[in-house]
Amino acid sequence: MTGAPRVAWLAVAAVAAGVLVTTSIAQSQLRDLTAAHWIRSGAGHAPARVLDVRPRWTGPGRPVSAGLVGLSVEWPVLAHDLGSTGTPPPGLVDALRLLGRPPLRIGGNSQDRMWPTARAAPTGAVWTPPAGFWPAFGLLAREAGGPVQVGLDLAHGDPQAAIPIARAAAGALPPGSVSFSLGNEPDRYGVQRWARLADRRVITARAPSWSFADYLRQYASIRHRLGAIGPLAGPDFADARWRKDFAPFLARAHPQAATVHAYPLNVCGKKPHSHAWPTERALLARSSWAGEIRHVVAWAVADAARAHTPLVVSEANSVACGGARGVSNGAASALWAPAFLLSAAQAGAGQVDLHASGSVYDPFHVVRGSNGTAEVQPTALFDGLTFVRQALGPDPQLVAAATAPAGRPAWALRGSDGRLRVLVENLDAHRAIVARIHLPQAGGWARVVRMTRAGRDVAGRQRMAIDGQTRVSVNGRLVAVGRRTPAWAAVVRGTVRVALPPWSAAVVVTSGPSGA
Predict the structure, then answer these.
(1) How many Å apart are CA 265 and CA 278, to the nearest integer?
(2) C-alpha to C-alpha distance for 495 and 355, rounded to whole angstroms
(3) Tens digit of pLDDT for each residue in 368-404?
(4) Which secondary-structure segment (H or E) carries 24?
(5) Rounded to whole angstroms, how far apart are CA atoms 234 and 311?
(6) Where are the beta strands (DSSP E) in 239-369?
(7) Number of separate helices (H) and strands (E) present in the chain
């Protein structure tokens, strides 16, 4: 059996060993959580394309931060997720642990719209921390979180908006784990809606004449009045509008980390189903991962390097202004995330915080039942983020970034365990590929971890399976359902072949130190 029939047979075998729901509880949580539909969608209708991946193994590697995968969340969303009991839901703790105890950035638009107390809140203040928030937040950080960046208000121009929040955070969170940021996307204060007045007039946080010089003066003044609350990061610019001012900010403010935001697509002011509405194809285009990194991040990395400051993408996701349903919460987002994150690491960013705002692009949602129980419902993006961790390994170094033909992404990393990990993705929605990966290992075996489409959950969301399993909420905890299907591939004369169905990814892990 050779050629396309053999490839089709391999694809059928892969599905036969795919996601099988094994418990009645899991069956009630999932619907059609199998990979079989990708056969029906055309995996066997066209010959699989052979893709050569030739990583460059020589030369020094670029260190990849263990905190590359971070999370960003709006203040009200975090308060909703924590609930009112003073204790975080167990499923929320599970979600953060599965993501590797990621760095947490608490901020976004809400940090410039909050006030320490509800009494006498000024214009633009629409949210105040509720009772029980700080104890629950502190417990969550201790049980499952990494470093925490707390976003403070700058839009009001009043340190009384920031000082009590900073003190409360410093008192609630683990010592030494907290940093702060002052103002969210200040480069857009003069052009972006900030508040709606009682007469329904919409106002911006600053006049249209708002400039970088104005911002720097106010930033310095409020920072001085905050005192020694802890290290600050900044400036959290939204885009390249103030690009020329990024380096001057770093030189004058000396932040702990230089921060920017990055969204490859947006729905801001657009109508669904219009020609300008984002699509899955647009999200998986090279311009939405490698291109976005070049456009938004690479120049900031260069400025940060000259200032000897680490670069953090402190807010990112697939589609700005809340995401696009069916795109930001579908299989495309799970495949976009590894490509975007590793492109950022390749460019020199140490951390990328995927944002949650209570919208369709969130990595997960916390839903409360009538009995008060909290269920964490992961999305396909969550699956993609947990898959990235399979590629990183311990203390990873990016030793090669070999983008395969036709814009298909591929990366190679070496861990402190001496193993090599090669991540390759098939971004074609209809055609399977066979990745022919060249390794510095003459023979033996390599472990293969696959991420494949896995149908939809009970909420109708597309999910992904990793090694045949998908995480779902059962009695308030996140559990793995489906039969685990570990796979091994023979290394023949330094080459391993891995079949990838449409819209899937694989990480190939060598069997010994340095592939030996």
Answers:
(1) 7
(2) 38
(3) 877 778 999 999 999 999 999 888 989 999 987 655 5
(4) helix 24-29
(5) 10
(6) 258-262, 265-266, 311-316, 319-320, 351-356, 364-368
(7) 14, 28
Instruction: Give ∠ CA 258-260-262 in degrees, rounded to 5.
Output: 150
Give CA–CA dist 479/249, Å, rounded.
45
Count other C-beta atoms under 10 Å from residue 193's C-beta. 11
Planar angle of CA 113, 367, 472, nearest 5 degrees: 130
- In angstroms, the CA 511 to CA 516 distance is 7
In b/e form, how buried is each residue of 129-158, taking b as 16+ CB within 10 angstroms?
beeebbebbbbbbeebbbbbbbbbbbbbee
Q: Which residues of 17-32 are buried (b: 16+ CB within 10 A; e: fewer)?
A: bbbbbeeeebeebbee
Q: Within 13 Å and on the Cβ side, how many CA atoms surround 196?
A: 1
Question: Nearest to residue 234, comparing CAs of 188, 305, 184?
Answer: 184
**Phi and psi angles of residue 409, each rounded to the nearest 5 degrees, phi first:** -85, 145
- How many other C-beta atoms are found inside a 10 Å radius of the C-beta of residue 200? 6
pLDDT tens-place string over residues 262-275? 999 999 989 888 88
Q: Is 359 helix (H, G, I), strand (E, B) or coil?
A: coil
Compute how many other C-beta atoms are within 10 angstroms of the C-beta atom of residue 248: 14
CB 445 within 8 A of CB 428: no
* pLDDT (tens digit per residue) in 215-269: 999 999 999 988 888 899 999 999 888 999 999 999 999 999 999 999 999 999 8
**Mapping DSSP to helix (H, G, I), strand (E, B) and coil, where does residue 463 land?**
strand
CA–CA gap between residue 116 and residue 163 (Å, rounded): 9
Residue labelled with tokens 């994150």: 341
How far is residue 162 from each of residues 80, 329, 454, 498, measured CA to CA in Å? 21, 34, 45, 53
The count of C-alpha atoms lying within 13 angstroms of the C-alpha of 498, restricted to the half-sphere facing its C-beta, is 31
Both structure tokens of 140: 């969550």
3-state class (DSSP) for residue 409: coil
Integer Cα distance of 31 and 383 in angstroms: 17
Q: Report whether 181 contacts 107 (CB < 8 A).
A: yes
Q: What is the DSSP secondary structure assignment for residue 30, as one 8-state letter?
A: E
Distance in angstroms (rounded) separating the CA atoms of residues 478 and 29: 11
pTM greater than the 0.70 cutoff: yes
Mean pLDDT score of the chain, rounded to an integer? 87
Cα(111)–Cα(124) distance, rounded to whole angstroms?
11
What is the token pair recorded at 348? 């020199």
Helices 331-347 & 380-392, crossing angle to 10 degrees? 40
Q: Are strands 495-500 and 433-438 parallel, antiparallel or unpaired?
A: antiparallel
